[in-house]
Design a protein that fits this description.
Layout (H helix, E strand, L loop, with lengths): L2 H19 L1 H12 L3 E3 L2 H6 L4 E4 L5 E9 L1 H7 L2 E5 H8 L5 E7 L6 E8 H10 L3 H4 L1 E4 L5 E6 L7 E5 L5
Parallel strand pairs: 3-5
Antiparallel strand pairs: 1-2, 2-3, 4-8, 5-6, 6-9, 7-8
Length: 169
């Protein structure tokens, strides 16, 4: 196993630990906004779709919700952006998800200080309508060379169905 592969594995493990630490706080946000009649976790949906969680709404439709929680350091640089890793963006653009809950933690990693719920259908419409590179995203790389895209939430504000605190005006 080379250094880059090890670094990516460590990064993945760190993300899983962070998301697990905040899992119930994220669930509470989902419960408050969507008021689902059922919650499910499906490992296949997590790996192959944008779906850390599957919720069933009162009209019996299932919706797939992806989670992404970022550390406070990312809040300092990307608080007005939605950052998506390359493989996640591919799944989103292939219509493999309904909503995305994107959040930032405080410095002590004990609370969520900001979150946005993104309607992925609206996100895709805006993305596909606007092909100009600068409007859509900027390309960035993590320390482990993982490619990700930073989207200005303001440009996608009609896709943001809930944000706390609200900062899109």
């Amino acid at each position: 196993m080379n250094q880059q592969t090890i670094s990516k594995e460590i990064n993945y493990i760190n993300n899983v630990v962070i998301e697990n630490k905040m899992f119930f706080k994220m669930i509470n946000i989902i419960l408050e906004y969507f008021k689902p009649i059922e919650l499910k976790y499906d490992l296949n949906a997590d790996r192959n779709l944008v779906g850390d969680l599957i919720i069933t709404l009162s009209d019996s439709t299932d919706k797939y919700i992806g989670f992404r929680i970022r550390c406070y350091d990312y809040y300092l640089y990307y608080s007005n952006d939605l950052t998506i890793r390359q493989f996640e963006l591919k799944k989103i653009l292939e219509q493999k998800g309904d909503y995305y809950l994107y959040a930032f933690m405080n410095e002590n990693e004990t609370e969520i200080i900001k979150y946005s719920i993104i309607d992925l259908n609206e996100f895709r419409k805006i993305f596909n309508k606007r092909k100009d590179f600068e409007f859509n995203y900027t390309v960035r790389y993590n320390k482990d060379d993982t490619k990700f895209y930073a989207f200005k939430l303001y440009n996608y504000r009609t896709a943001v169905i809930k944000q706390m605190p609200y900062e899109l005006d």
